[in-house]
Specification:
Length: 275
C-alpha cells in the first residue's frame, strides 16, 4: 500500500492532469450547448477526414499475415501448375507412342526408363520390363520419335538397352529420299555417322534416315534421324555423313520394345558365306 502511495505522490502532476482531462471530456459530453455541438461536429468531421486520408496505410501485422497466406498460396499454385504441366507432357508422349503402335505391324511391350548412362562411350538405359514380359536380347527399342537402340541383357523384370550413342552400336541404315545405304555408327559427340557412302551418291542436308531392310535385327522403315552435314575429304572414295538423332536421349522417359526377332535361317545362311 505504501508503495502505491509513493508512486501516486511521485506522479501526482500526471494523475491530476489525466483527471482534469477526463472531467473535461465528461463535461463536454454532457453539455448540450450550441458551441459544444459545433465542436463535436468539427471533431467528428476531422476524425473522418483523417481516416479517409490515411486509411490506405495497412496495419503492419495484418499485412504480414496476408503476405504469409499469399506465399503459401503461391507455393500451392506453383506445385499444381508443375503437376499439370508434367501431366500434359506425359499425355503428349503417350499419344505419340499410341500412334506409333497403331501404325506398326509389330507387337510392342511398353516400358518406362528407370536408369540412364549417358556420359560414357558405351551408353545404355535400363527399362522396367524383362523376360517375364517376353523381352529378349536383340529386340529393338523405339519411341514415337524413332529408334532408341536394342536390348543387350535381360533379367526377369528388367532389361538393359544399348542406345544409338554407343561406340559398339551398328545398324544398317538408308537415306529415305535417295535410297542410299550405309552403316550407322556413333563416334562420339551429339551426332551419328553413316559410313560407306560413296561420294558420288546423292545425300543432302535435311534428308531423313531410316533403318534398312538389309538389317537382320531392326525392322525396315524406323526413323533414325536427319542428315545434318555432308562433306568430301580430298582423295577419299566415300563422303562423311553426319546425322542428328530424332530421339532426344536426354529427356525421353517411355519406350516400346518391339517384339521382333530376326530370321534365324537368314542369319545362319549369311554366316556361311566367307567374309
Amino acid at each position: 500500500m505504501r508503495g502505491l502511495i509513493n508512486i501516486i505522490s511521485f506522479f501526482k502532476e500526471y494523475f491530476l492532469l489525466t483527471l482534469c482531462i477526463l472531467i473535461s471530456l465528461v463535461l463536454l459530453a454532457l453539455n448540450d450547448n450550441e458551441q459544444i455541438r459545433s465542436i463535436r461536429s468539427l471533431t467528428v468531421a476531422s476524425v473522418g477526414f483523417l481516416q479517409d486520408t490515411f486509411g490506405f496505410i495497412p496495419d503492419y501485422f495484418d499485412l504480414r499475415q496476408e503476405n504469409h497466406v499469399l506465399r503459401e498460396l503461391n507455393v500451392t499454385l506453383s506445385d499444381e501448375v508443375s503437376r499439370l504441366r508434367e501431366a500434359k507432357l506425359e499425355n503428349m508422349r503417350l499419344r505419340q507412342l499410341v500412334d506409333l503402335r497403331r501404325r506398326s505391324q509389330f507387337e510392342y511391350v511398353s516400358a518406362n526408363v528407370v536408369g540412364k548412362n549417358l556420359q560414357l562411350l558405351r551408353n545404355t538405359i535400363t527399362i522396367d520390363v524383362g523376360k517375364n514380359d517376353g523381352v529378349k536380347v536383340n529386340m529393338p527399342i523405339v519411341t514415337g520419335a524413332g529408334l532408341v537402340g536394342k536390348v543387350v541383357a535381360t533379367s526377369s523384370a528388367y532389361a538393359i538397352g544399348q542406345i544409338l550413342l554407343n561406340k559398339d552400336f551398328r545398324a544398317s541404315a538408308k537415306v529415305q529420299r535417295g535410297r542410299v545405304d550405309g552403316i550407322l555408327v556413333w563416334e562420339g559427340g551429339s551426332y551419328l555417322s553413316l559410313r560407306n557412302v560413296a561420294k558420288t551418291l546423292d545425300v543432302q542436308v535435311g534428308d531423313e534416315v531410316i533403318t534398312s531392310e538389309y538389317s537382320s535385327l531392326f525392322p525396315p522403315g524406323i526413323k533414325i534421324g536427319v542428315v545434318s552435314e555432308t562433306h568430301h575429304d580430298p582423295g577419299a572414295l566415300v563422303q562423311t555423313v553426319h546425322i542428328t538423332p530424332s530421339v532426344d536421349f536426354a529427356s525421353f522417359e517411355e519406350v516400346f520394345v518391339v517384339t521382333h526377332t530376326p530370321d534365324t535361317s537368314r542369319i545362319a545362311l549369311e554366316q556361311q558365306i566367307p567374309q
